Amino acid sequence: MKRYIGFLCLLMVTTLGCWNYREVEELGIVSGVGIDKQENTSNYQLAIEIVNIKGGQDGQINHHPVITQGQSMFDSARNTILRTGQRAYWAHATAAVISEDLARDGILSVLDWVSRDAEVRSDIWLFVSSEKDAKSIFLTEPDLNDLVSFKLADMVSAHNSVPKFIPKELWKFKQELSAPGQSPTLPTIRIVENNGQKVPEIWGTAVFRKDKMVGWLDGLESFALSYALPKNAFGLIILPTTIEGKSGVVSYEVFGKTTMHSATFAGNRALMNVQVDLQVGIADLEGITPDYRETTILRMLEEDVSSFIKQEIRQVISRVQQEFKSDIFGFGGVIRQQLPHIWKDLESDWSEEFTKLDVRVAVNTTIRASGLLTAPIQMRD
Amino acid sequence: MKAEVISEQQGISIVLLFILGNALIISIGAQAKSDIWLAVLIAIGMAIPVLTLYARLHYLLPGMDLFDILQYGFGSVIGRITGLIYVWFAFHLGSRVLRNFGEFIITVGLEETPQLLPISILAILCLWCVKEGLEVLGRFSNFFTRFVVIMVLGTSLLLLTEVDFSNLSPFLYHGMAPVTTAAFKILTFPFTETVIFTMVFSNFQKKSSPYKIYLIGLILGGLILFITITNEVLVLGSELYETSYFPGYRAVQRINIRNFIQRLEILAGVTFLISGFVQLSICLLATCKGLAKVLNFDDYRFIVTPTTFLMVTMSILIYNSIIEMNRWAVEIWPVYAAPFQLGIPVVLWLACELKMKLKGEYPA
Amino acid sequence: MRKIIKALLNPRKAKLSPDKQVLRGSLDRNISLFKKEIFAGDDTVVYRLFSTNNPNSLRCAVIFIDQMIDRESLMKHVIRPLMKKSIDATQLAGSIDYIVDSVITIDGANVENSLGKIVPNILQGESLLLIDGYSTGVILNTRGWAMRAVEEPQSESVVRGPREGFTEGIMLNLTLLRRKLKTPKLRFHLTKLGQQTKTTVAIAYIDGLASPEILKELNRRLNNTQIDGVLESGYIEEMIKDSPLSPFKTVGHTERPDIIAGKLLEGRIAIFCDGTPFVLTVPFIFQELFQANEDYYKNFLLASFDRIVRYMAFFITTSTPAIYLSLITYHQEMVPTPLLLSISAARDGVPFPTVFEVIAMGLVFEILREGGIRLPTPIGQALSIVGAIVLGDAAATAQLVSAPMIIVIALTAISSFAIPQMLGLTVIIRLIFVIIASFLGLYGYIFAVIGLVLQLTSMRSFGIPYMANMGSLHPQDVKDTMIRAPWWVMYWRPKFLANRNMVRQRKEANR
Fold this sequence. Notes:
heterotrimer, A: GMP Synthetase, Chain A, domain 3, 2 domains, 34% strand, globular, B: mainly alpha, Hydantoin permease, two-stranded parallel sheet, 4 strands
């Protein structure tokens, strides 16, 4: 046996070269990338945000995206070496922002490399830039020692509390793309001013049909969209309310939300049911003091919330049906699962059938809490 | 040379690890789409009689391995020729396993490393193991089984947060045909690949041991495979399952619990490497034992080294690329393997039963 | 060939060969035989000449080696009776037996005339009585020399448990064991090993528990050893162990009588060696590396936890450097992003590649440890301070090594102390792991682990598989491996050892 071990050592030493051996400080760790089409050419232009830590133990993060061009995604990614001397290391990339132009042309060509390459992880967050290009997102100024991509990732991880966009990981996007009866969406990023600084904000949704972007939903519509989808979403519901002649604003905080999609057979057509159950708490009363200890008033408030959400959801569904003709709700998938025999007829022409689909929305709200106060604050002379 | 006796626990461990081997990491039975779980269950069901048949051969002729049994059943000449074909089968299977290994390591981790290096290291480890004999392999498997099982079930458990049950419906959307095809493919890879054990096992502690070893090994291995594959489809969806070379690896990538327990892909690699090591050692052992038996050598140990290096060479030459490798595993293998795994054993069994009845040698 | 070399090395001995010679009739000739030939030039040999009292004075001599004997008992029980008592000449005629029977009062006295038997006995602290006119002498049991008292062994101290340890004297050691096992079935077999040292070696076992096959095999191996000197049981260990090239030990050793008693009760065999407190036990299997005697004295839950901790420590001490190395040089994608960034920041500016860092730091630690072991305690402390400050702080501040690396090495070092039985062994395993991991990353590491387990599973100790019980899931086998089950459920002795007499306790008795 010892002979073979000796042989092994010999093999290792003679074929020496630590092929994949890479020192960690030699890697250009990519945190995020903005993907654009170069103007007037068919080339790609990437704005690659590389974490550049200098200064040993208590180092500082240097914020500067590297701009590279190339004929394909892979080419442009490799070309970073020309600009930085470091090989870009993609496994820790958290965000990829795609420009609107590219998204409208078809996102598949971008995604192929990203999902084929073993280095890029499939849990990278995808965004569409609603600015003129994706590069500009990475040219905003985050705080000291922070990076745009990490900032975006932080926003995403807290999105449940502000469901004004629907975050999407690469694998989820691909799954939606390939699933029958489902079209994907991506969240969009815009740049806003904060204290004179330009900062990115995730707001709204880009709607795709197949892999091509077909339109936008703004933040409020995205809010309704996330209530229409069977996923976790909390956030606030702000309602102007008029009670006993006085009008004011009531803010509700959503504690729990369940959305159920089900397909039924009505006549000879499929009918989608979207059943939303909300559990909310009264978070803020402004301008009015409804005595919510009264059951009738409580029911009224609940009804208010239900009808508001219902209306919002209906609106967004009909807009998507009419304008975008893209089944971002996954209704087709539900029909496929629950009424497979009907799906076989609809499958071939689903994007057309989808626009004609009847959707019934039902919202049921329960007010469960009212913060620390048992009753509105009393005012007496 | 002392006969190598294997205990029931060790036997079950080897069979279990052998079944898991490559099947854990390579996509199998993808054409059943979302009904793959059913295909696995059917395959287990179909495998039970086949493995009972293998065990029956051991039971009928204790102390003999497949090569002896072939010579007993078919006579010396035909027995030797079929034995030689089986040697090829084991050799070829071993090369394939070795190549799968190499491709896995190169694809997911070390894309710049020459494939020969990990392959040779693994082959040399197997060479060592085979020289030590079946007993050592038994103890080795026995030692590692629990780790492999814990890791496989543990990753499945961690994936529970990512599970999406809609990936399993609609049930039988494409009808029963793809499911049965997939089930047959799963039967030939990995379940009845266990035919190779008939070449390796010969002495057992008890007379009923072969039944226990084959069937418990099959059911445990099948169950674990069922859990993992179902889990993979639940997590990835059948589309992604089908398009990935290594869906097990893809699924484990998805684990992310509070940003803390994440990036555990290597666990999939560990289980694959260990069970693949066992699989490869068994193939190598079968090849060497078979060669020794067919060519009438007393001991197989001296041909282990050349066989190993031949196998390494073969594994490099056998496919041009991973694309070809995948096609082989999915399309050609079931057809190619069926006579070895099902055809010849059935004929052999009938021949043996008949011969024993005629000779009146039936075991009590 | 061997004989010729031996003869060349010891020309005098070859010529004389005292084995063949016998005592003569004349006292003077006998004395000069010892003085001029056998012990020529040895000034530590004492020749005490005296005469008996009456009726007819006989010239006598006692020969012994200074400080090896108990002078008091020689004086009281041999010289005084001979000089004071009246000796009946008629009884004495012809045979020296009368002296042994009726005159001297010492407990051990043998009549002997072959020098081949006499000389080794003198060398072991017995005295030789010669009387003029007789060609036989009397070997007197006067052994007695200064010995270390029974103390707590330094290498295996305990919080709870007996504080006595073996000493250098084999007979005392056997007594210490006998006091724990008061059964007539406890057997001691004494033999001598070493052509020059003639070291007493005792095989101890409990009849009916120890496997006769293992006993036979042990005796065979002991009889086959041809060595000139046995100064410590380590000599015997290397001569009789299985897999002699493997760094894993297949023969156990301990300084504690309670451990030996426990092992004998499990059916093992102990080998005592004169001149060392370390007693060997065979067979020795892998799980024993993780057992401590205290496990059996304290609460079984805590003991089990400690044992699991030891297994973890083994994993950590062998694997952390390799895993760290492969994670940050091959599998950067597996490190959580913040951690990777901080490691990357810490590595920035460090001139050495990580592999070199790992190996060098590991070596430095080993040097520190090795340096500290044999130093007097105060200097040892100074050494550890220098080590801690120079390596831990200054090196990191000067960016010679990265801070995470120091953490890794420190973790490795601390863990290695949790399994003192494997101190040297873990270093080798760690090094191999690191080297292979530096080529193939974690896959290389796994290959190395497979290799390690293969090595372990292929080993045997006296026929017992080294990894016996380690993979088993049978409850009776698990009871003393990964965990220490409570005493009241350990009904059986380990089945791979004592399969003849399995019952350790009756179930009903405790329930």
